């Protein structure tokens, strides 16, 4: 009798507690070779192609598309091929492993994922499958938009399909996957149907929104989101829910608000770059806000550099990538860094290391709407600045009134680690820097 093995979901990096299944690449009963793509999952950090740990037959899948699998729990079961050489339990995967700090965008045909080998987590690159070169995020988008990647014309280097290629194919409908269940065709016009008795008319029973047990009736499979029905949070949004709950439980949150007067600005300026510069200036005046705090040990770490977390909204949820060494960047470098992080967030190629280690954060929510807010401080950081929507306000000046352009600011801080005086000095330093002409 062939040996059977159970494959448990590995830790895909950063100690993430679970992952959401996006797509299985192997059907039950199919043969698969060692290291061939088994499935694609989504974590809070990235889309990851998980390779097969064995050569054999896939006999069971613990979850389908949309299911959330906990790290360390069973993911798949295999009947091993007795004639094939199998990898030892702690043997490295044999894939190309890039250093964890390597930028994932050097090759558009690869994506940074993670795979456990022994006691270590390696960063792994996935290239092509079925003659199609695309990163897992692109494959997931194609699956969502029902686009057949084999019919998409690639525009990326070395024949790689990009996000824009998939979106274009979906927009013009040139690579649509066939519908799952085609409608039955009627009789040919030349065929004469035999006479039949007129059927009796039955009035279908009225559908009720509740079952006999008084619960909402689900009209679609659990894996398919349905309006009005509970569905699990997945990926980035799921991780955000955990982080916000932990932050709420740990941080003694306090918020100060004020308005920066931009009336003296000369010419058109990059508001976000000016905000970053103002945060850096304020960190020099009040370094207590550019710090980490350990609530259990009651210790504080002041940072000599500014690694600024910048909140970015996306269709998948909230990302907060880190702009490293913001205190050493000029306006052009700040804009270039923000654009790079935004691009990596949009195509889900951002490395997990870019989403950690910020010393202070900025949320420019006013680009959408909202004047003031209470941004949430995420430990171990102790402060976050929120920038609201620009407004034109009537301002009293010597001898009369003027209309000035003003930018609302909301400074949230952990009152365990930061005094009210430190916070007020920080906010004033930002106001002073933003008031400068350029």
Task: Describe the protein.
- InterPro entries: 2-oxoacid_DH_actylTfrase, 2-oxoacid_DH_E2_comp, Biotin_lipoyl, CAT-like_dom_sf, E3-bd_dom_sf, PSBD, Single_hybrid_motif.
- Its cofactor is (R)-lipoate.
- Belongs to the 2-oxoacid dehydrogenase family.
- Its EC number is 2.3.1.-.
- By secondary structure, this protein is an alpha+beta fold.
- Helix content is 19%, strand content 27%.
- The chain has 2 domains: 4-126, RNA polymerase II/Efflux pump adaptor protein, barrel-sandwich hybrid domain (OB fold (Dihydrolipoamide Acetyltransferase, E2P), Beta Barrel), CATH 2.40.50; 237-434, 2-Layer Sandwich (Chloramphenicol Acetyltransferase), CATH 3.30.559.10.
- The chain has 6 helices and 24 strands.
- The strands form 7 sheets. Strands 14, 17, 20, 21, 22, 23 and 24 form a 7-stranded mixed sheet that branches. It has a 4-stranded antiparallel sheet with strand order 1-8-6-3, with no helix packed on it. It has a 4-stranded antiparallel sheet with strand order 5-4-2-7, covered by helices on one side.
- Strand 12 (128-129) and strand 13 (132-133) form a beta hairpin.
